[in-house]
Amino acid sequence: MNKLLIVWSSGELEVARKMVLLYGSVILPRGYWDEAHIMIWGPSAKLLAENEALCETVKKVQKSGVTFSCCIVCSDDYGVTEKLASLGIEMTHTGERLTDALQSDWKVITF
Asked: What value does the CA radius of gyration of the chain take, rounded to a whole number of Å?
């Protein structure tokens, strides 16, 4: 099974729009991967919470089957935990998920 973990840490809007979420929106429908997860970590949490267009895009990506989680330490620091959780994003300690992915058969890319 081909599994991809995208670690999204960039706070740059164009990275979010033109890489993370654009690619994320097509990877399962086009059969590029069997399973995909986007991990929101650091400045990307603040960017997402403050941008309604990105929130709408995340909802569309979720409908394609891609799952999302967010570093709860980061989201708490930025004061955006409630907002991101309301999008159906799993709030968690991301270090454990990242470590598990790196030590297993997941492919990991970071933006």
From this structure: 13
Q: What is the pLDDT of residues 52-91, one digit of tens each?
A: 999 999 999 999 999 999 999 999 999 999 999 999 999 9
The pTM of the whole model exceeds 0.85: yes
Residue 74 neighbours by CB under 8 Å, 6+ apart: 40, 41, 42, 45
CATH superfamily to which 3-110 belongs: DsrEFH-like (3.40.1260.10)
DSSP state of 89: P
Report the amino acid identity of residue 92: T
pLDDT on residue 103: 97
Please calculate the CA angle 80-110-83 and round it to the nearest 5 degrees: 15
What residues have CB less than 8 Å from 4, skipping those under 6 apart?
A: 27, 32, 33, 35, 36, 37, 106, 107, 108, 109
* Domain spans, the chain: 3-110
User: Which of 24, 25, 81, 22 lies closest to 48, judged by CA?
Assistant: 81
